[in-house]
Amino acid sequence: MDNKEISQAVISRLPRYFRYLGELKNEGIERISSQELSDIMKVTASQIRQDFNNFGGFGQQGYGYKVEYLYEEIGRILGLDKTHNLIIIGAGNLGQALANYMNFERRGFLFQGIFDNNPKLFGTRIRNMVVRPMEEMESFIKENKIDIAVLTIPKASALAVAERLVKCGIKGIWNFAHVDLNVPDKIQVENVHLSDSLMKLIYNVNSVDDEWE
Amino acid sequence: MDNKEISQAVISRLPRYFRYLGELKNEGIERISSQELSDIMKVTASQIRQDFNNFGGFGQQGYGYKVEYLYEEIGRILGLDKTHNLIIIGAGNLGQALANYMNFERRGFLFQGIFDNNPKLFGTRIRNMVVRPMEEMESFIKENKIDIAVLTIPKASALAVAERLVKCGIKGIWNFAHVDLNVPDKIQVENVHLSDSLMKLIYNVNSVDDEWE
């Protein structure tokens, strides 16, 4: 199976399928048709079938999908059957919030270290980590087989840090800095631009206002 | 201009245009062609022109766009020329991180209150707010003309809180709870599902791994 052929739009939808299937599994539901899944997820049944066909279909038409099997297959496709080592760059409120988010660990996302450039924070304990100075970042990444860096630093320093991360062979960057990173194509970047998301919400709220006036 | 006709995909791109134009403006750049904007934003010039045509075009073909004018127009379209009153539901790490994010205020997003159901937190000061009990939420929303609620609570309580928010006339919900809310269409919801975003990153990192093996 050549993953490269699968569009980012499909991949973006996989975690949501995974989440709904996890809930169905917890409710003890064994089988579900694409139509039933469509009703609860509010996407069309044809979209669901098309998405699943990217991965071989997962089930027989007319018999519905086996919930647990589908849950595990999608988890496997997402790579949740492996563990990944992460570091957080930036020990501010957001970095701390992510460090303390228990569910990540359950999915195999292991936060191994947290870094900051504020000397006042060095040695502070956040969950099971101590805040380390940025100078130690490169050696830490190599020694601890870190795959992924989470950037929760201001945009002014994000580009320079991203460059350092690329040089020491990081594979993915989860970017919360409010800037688009300029990294080689083989480095995967997933942006969470919180301001952009809030602006979109505000736009939609204003549009409804206009409509009702 | 009928905003309803504009697709969510276009609207999703507006904050990014706004961000780049703000940077160009800060650098003192007065005019930019769609081709130059295309180069720095890494989207096609034709996409840029198509997006802008949704709002009347903003400039004359061949002369380029006036940066400051375009910045201000997109800001106006996004509703950033108005202020909005927000509350945060959930005074945990993430709620605190958002409360302390200074840039939101600069954009007219004013956090007026923060709520939690943990009595130990009541009265704690977070920035310029004190943590209030959930019982006070409805009256606070009415008295302070709150438009938007930010949900940073676990998914188990998110659905019930969303229902209460709908009943007291909230217009938009910025949802960080790891669940899709079931609210009437006229309530705008913008989801930030952090786990989904991280899973997508992991998938892409794994795919590149496969490719290079």
Characteristic key phrases:
homodimer, 213 residues, alpha/beta, seven-stranded mixed sheet, two-stranded antiparallel sheet, 9 helices, 46% helix, globular
Describe the structure.
The structure is a homodimer of 213-residue chains. Chain A has 213 residues and is an alpha/beta fold. Chain A is 46% helix and 17% strand. Chain A is built from nine helices and nine strands. Chain A has helices spanning 8-26, 34-41, 45-53, 67-78, 93-99, 102-106, 137-143, 155-167, 194-212; strands spanning 31-32, 65-66, 84-89, 109-116, 125-126, 129-133, 148-151, 172-175, 188-191. The N and C termini of chain A lie far apart (53 Å). The mean pLDDT of chain A is 91. At the A-B interface, helix 1, helix 5, strand 9 and helix 9 of A face helix 1, helix 5, strand 9 and helix 9 of B.
